[in-house]
Predict the 3D structure of the following.
Amino acid sequence: MNRRDLLKQSVFIAGSAFNIPVLTESSFLSKLSSTPTAPASLQLQIGDLETTVFFDGVVSLPSYQPVFAPEVPPDELRQQLQKLHMPIQMAEAGINVLLIRKGGRIILMDTGFGHLNPNAGKLVPALQALGVQPRDVTDIIITHVHIDHVGGILDADDHPVFPSAVYHIAKKEYEFWMSANPDFSRSKGDSANAAFSISFARKVLGAVKSKLNIFEYGQELFSCIIPELAEGHTPGHTMFTIYSGNKSLQHIVDTFHLPLLVSHPHWGCQWDTDFDKAVATRRKIVRQGAEQGTLFLSCHLPWPGLGYIDKAGEDYYWMIYPGSSPNKITL
Ligand SMILES: [Zn+2]
């Protein structure tokens, strides 16, 4: 397969996984919104822990439905988008990737989309802009095995992008994708996307099999990360408490792709393997987050994905962290 064929395949892959109609190479590219090409990162100091949030790019959809709020009347959806000051014409979700430095280790939480989406794959140049080469990354924690999180593990020739890395994944997530028949019967997505997700997940997990460390929920990683099951988006979808001393944040990964789902957790998302379980997980996090004032980090909420969930009357809102420095936040 030559590079042109690979690019065509990549465009198909990106469209297929995100339920975008499969378009020709040029029309697909022209329909994507433009995103900043300069590498973007934000230092995030959690107590003594040095972490950095990197911007990998944007997932764009020509409309919110059917992926988001698939069963909500369009007028009601439009009203709520306007109320939340969200764009109406198209749906966009950023891709935020966290790096943690701990005791000589450089730990990435996921790898972004990699070369498989022309509007993303900006993680590696952003790392390099801070002097981190891909070979310097010692560990990669896989939050769940979707293309926008593990697409950056292999390059266009299927070689590992991070040649020194050990990969860490929750047992339940690994076993789901590697089981004989991963169950998508409770998803509201289409079966072609499920079939693609399964084959892609198996390909990536197979490629890194010899360097895989499988962990259990509650098992502390690197003395600063506690993984916890947040099921629904995928059966083993993992969220993480990241802490140092009395400072912490909760990385909720893909529990919410849009602020809309913080305010309307039950409207749901076709990308969830189990639609109803994802709703239940969202509701629990919304309620607890508002009660406890938890600081959250999210893979897809607006850059840098850092914020709180607040309650006003009976309504819940995503409240972006009110920091003013563009380069560094210290908790
Ligand atoms: Zn995602």
